[in-house]
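Dear colleague,

Thank you for sharing your sequence with our group. We've completed the structure prediction you requested, and as agreed, I am returning the results in plain text so they can be pasted directly into your records. Please verify that the sequence below matches your submission; if there's any discrepancy, let me know and we will rerun it promptly.
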Amino acid sequence: MNLDQASLLDELDSIRDYIRFSLSAFHEHGVFFGHGTDNPWDEAVQLVLNAVHLPWDTRPEVLDAKLSRSEKRRVLEYLRQRVQERKPLPYITGEAWFMGMPFSVDERVLIPRSPIAQLIETGFEPWLRPGPVDRVLDLCTGSGCIGIAMARCFEEAEVDLVDISADALQVAQRNIARHHLEDRVFAIESDLFAGIAPGTRYDLIVSNPPYVDEADLNTMPSEFRHEPGLALGSGPDGLDITRQILRQAGDFLSDDGLLVVEVGNSEIHLMEQYPELPLLWVELEAGGNGVFTITAPELRQFADSI
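Please find the predicted structure tokens below.
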């Protein structure tokens, strides 16, 4: 399919035409869905509506509206990037959604999609102890979406967003400002806990660290090649960084604090290597896998065995 044909500008007129054409292009090129949508129809609708600056919930009557020539060119350019470059749609539009909130994204950060959102929606109940939450850490924050969502959940808490990547933190800082949270959400450049002041204690530490093992990393669809490799792979078994977090997190949690970590498919490796570790694997009703919780006392008890 040649997306540069001038004839397309004359043959296709309406939003509906371009959605249908995008669907055909997706099927012909075998694109992967999983960076905001999980099916070709939703992806096509979002691509075309974003290209013509219309919201996702635009009324169906608008689908038959004719596009201007400049709008047609922009749709085709978005489509070219999506099917020929295999660029995920949020990187094309510069925006992704997480827990109903918009976030600025580019290729310096992962596209938000963590199932940890399901825990944030319930305030981490029943795993987090009752009572006020004063200080929260989002470790390996990337775009800042998890930490900013937690700031919305715990309205009195201070939230630190930590990442080793200065580039990622520039994106996170933009999102802090976008959601007007500069007074209590702070971006910190640090290699895990290394840059956090000794004696700092958090009621809750949440992390979506790099966790893809080498086997999965080598077989991922082309779309993932646009995401920063630093944020995906973590050694042969995907657990290099998670092991560091487990060893150190107990020193930065309050006495009744909670650690929550997403390890995806690497949960199998973690369970095999540390069968004695009392990890509680969360049942994710809306889909996803590989999220565990563990309390501060449990971490400290088993620290020597990790």
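Summary note from our side: The CA atoms of residues 23 and 41 lie 7 Å apart.

Kind regards,
the structure core
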